[in-house]
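Workshop exercise sheet. Pairs work together: one partner reads the sequence aloud, the other fills in the structure field after running the prediction. Swap roles for the next sheet.
Pair: D.N. / O.F.
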Amino acid sequence: MNKVVRDGKVAVIISPDYGAGWYSWNGNSAMLFDPGLVGLIEEGNEEKIQTYINLKWPEAYLNGHGLEVQWIPQGKKFRIVEYDGAESIQMLDQTAWLIA
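Structure field:
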């Protein structure tokens, strides 16, 4: 899977706005790392973003707005946490786990 890597960090695409979760509502990990979409998000051209999304993932359930790129250190474990469509990134080593 192709990923954008800069200065030892990997670009991860999430939807922090309420609505439909970008990754969490589709489960396609390619959607998290898509290099073409990373570039379009960085450009900030919403029309090009929407066209790209509609062509690449026509079957996906998407809100498609408010996408942003977050940079995660390469090799770090993380997960996408979603509440009512708003996604955030949770790093494995930053989570306090409880033991029963």
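Discussion prompt: The CA atoms of residues 15 and 65 lie 8 Å apart. What would you look at next?
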